[in-house]
């Protein structure tokens, strides 16, 4: 799959990915789950390169959900340390590539303070980059995000600072008010569910599911997903009347019950 097989006029602006299947990838090779998380790093960075090549403006990846705290303490600890080390090792590279990094999620306990500080440093380092925005959903849950936005609105209303609540008021109180709606949402590993990801922003996203496990995903797999996306008819609830010219000459079905 080459880039020139894609229509440059219909590249999705915002691609979101549920990076799933690390544990299965590792276990299939007789390794512990954490080895799968490690292997996922190069998949992420190849995908970032692929997104830059395609001119995708926004890429949002799911790294740790509000439900992932249920995992064994070992794995949770590994994921906290791993994400910390990833930021230490890779922040400059993202900055060199003119990628702006932002985090979506609650930044309070139990996220380690050191990780929160690194998150803030990375956001500050890359804040003026404009080529692409990479958002990392970490300690993120779509319901929590909507709950946090709702609480803010209720507080504003109680303080007499707000009378009207509309969609724009909610959207402006999500974790990143500048984040556009998702055009294409990809989930790896064959699971076909949202797992609490971007519930508001993905309302009209095109969904692409692939059997590839996350560590096997790469820029070519991203191109395939974009190719699939370009074959979709996005209607947003609307309708266009397009009778086919041949319809009037097509043979009509016999009435029900006819011999
Ligand atoms: C996704 O891979 C990474 C995280 C959720 C952190 P998993 O760890 O969910 O891998 P599987 O789905 O168990 O194979
Ligand atoms: C979703 O994957 C979260 C991330 C990829 C970070 P999970 O593996 O946690 O989702 P479920 O449990 O299969 O729904
Ligand atoms: Mg999983």
From TrEMBL:
Does tRNA processing show up as a keyword for this record?
no
**Any one cellular-component term (Gene Ontology):** plasma membrane
Q: Where, by residue number, does substrate bind? A: 21-25, 33, 37, 65-67, 69, 71, 187, 193-195
Give the residue ranges for region: Disordered.
Answer: 237-259
Enzyme Commission number, as recorded? 2.5.1.-
Which keywords fit this entry according to its UniProt record? Answer: Magnesium, Metal-binding, Transferase
GO process terms (BP): polyprenol biosynthetic process
Q: Which SUPFAM superfamilies match?
A: Undecaprenyl diphosphate synthase
Q: Which InterPro entries match?
A: UPP_synth-like, UPP_synth-like_CS, UPP_synth-like_sf
Residues of the active site are 20, 68 (proton acceptor)
Entry annotated with the keyword Transcription regulation: no
Single annotated GO MF: magnesium ion binding
Instruction: Quote the cofactor binding remark.
Output: Binds 2 magnesium ions per subunit.
Cofactor(s) the record lists: Mg(2+)
Write out the residues that bind Mg(2+): 20, 206
Q: Which family does it belong to?
A: Belongs to the UPP synthase family.
Q: What is annotated about its quaternary structure and interactions?
A: Homodimer.
User: Which HAMAP family does UniProt cross-reference here?
Assistant: ISPT
Function as written in the Swiss-Prot or TrEMBL entry: Catalyzes the condensation of isopentenyl diphosphate (IPP) with allylic pyrophosphates generating different type of terpenoids.
Q: What's the name of the protein? A: Isoprenyl transferase
């Amino acid at each position: 799959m080459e880039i020139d097989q894609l229509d440059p006029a219909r590249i999705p602006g915002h691609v979101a990915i549920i990076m799933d299947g690390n544990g299965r990838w590792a276990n299939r090779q007789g390794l512990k789950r954490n080895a799968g998380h490690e292997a996922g790093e190069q998949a992420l960075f190849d995908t970032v390169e692929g997104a830059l090549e395609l001119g995708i403006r926004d890429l949002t990846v799911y790294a740790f959900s509000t439900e992932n705290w249920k995992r064994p303490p070992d794995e949770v600890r590994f994921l906290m340390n791993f994400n910390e080390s990833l930021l230490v090792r890779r922040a400059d590279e993202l900055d060199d590539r003119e990628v702006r990094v932002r985090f979506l999620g609650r930044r309070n306990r139990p996220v380690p303070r050191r990780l929160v500080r690194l998150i803030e440093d990375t956001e500050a380092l890359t804040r003026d980059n404009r080529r692409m925005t990479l958002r990392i959903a970490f300690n993120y849950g779509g319901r929590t995000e909507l709950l946090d936005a709702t609480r803010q609105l209720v507080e504003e209303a109680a303080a007499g600072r707000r009378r009207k609540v509309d969609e724009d008021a909610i959207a402006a109180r999500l974790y990143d008010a500048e984040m556009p709606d998702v055009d294409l949402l990809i989930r790896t590993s064959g699971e076909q569910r949202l797992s609490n990801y971007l519930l508001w922003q993905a309302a009209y996203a095109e969904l692409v599911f692939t059997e590839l496990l996350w560590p096997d995903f790469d820029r070519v797999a991203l191109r395939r997903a974009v190719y699939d996306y370009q074959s979709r008819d996005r209607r947003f609830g609307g309708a266009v009347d397009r009778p086919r010219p041949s319809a009037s000459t097509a043979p009509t079905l016999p009435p029900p019950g006819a011999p």
